[in-house]
């Protein structure tokens, strides 16, 4: 029994020295957590391991979606400002359904003042599919930026399906995550 205990202690001490040696040589880093990560860990502790792990996996997909959708919005805004020489282009360019959506969503925000609203620009009140509709409805303004209308339509339509999976807190398959990333890369390459 004493030999087993001595062996156990010796292995423990040896392991401790090995870990310290690996750390000193920069070959092993202990995880560091900032205060927000510690708070998140405590907040999420009640969730199953599957939910916590999936949330980490989905972070990257959300960031890709966020960047892609906002790049499209910013591109449309800046293109119409350049074309119309005004920041007040929405009234002229949006269709009746888009204008109604804007009014309805702003009214909803007014009723719920306790909740932070959206970005001030009307385009941020539109659905992702509305972005494609704006581009296609004003193809004469956008045609020099894209190969054809189908290119724009397919990327936004495919990405909107992916967006809905992400927005409704479902797990996105790796293949769909790669497709979303590909659409973002295509968009960046195309509009530079």
Could you characterize what this model shows?
The chain has helices at 2-24, 35-44, 49-84, 90-93, 96-111, 128-137, 139-142, 149-167, 174-191. Helix 3 runs antiparallel to helix 8 and helix 8 (149-167) crosses helix 9 (174-191). It has one domain (53-191). It starts with a helix and ends with a helix. The chain is built from nine helices and no strands. It is mostly helical and 192 residues long.
How many structural domains? 1
Please provide the ordered H/E string of secondary-structure elements: HHHHHHHHH
Helical fraction equals over 70%
Number of helical elements: 9
β-strand number: 0
Basic shape: elongated
The class by helix and strand makeup works out as: mainly alpha
In percent, how much strand structure appears in the residues? under 5%
Low-confidence stretches: none
The mean pLDDT is: 90
Could you describe the largest sheet, including whether it forms a barrel?
Answer: none
Give the N-to-C terminal Cα separation. 71 Å
Rounded Rg = 25 Å
Protein name: Swt1-like HEPN domain-containing protein
InterPro entries: HEPN_Swt1
Pfam families: HEPN_Swt1
Domain Swt1-like HEPN: 63-192
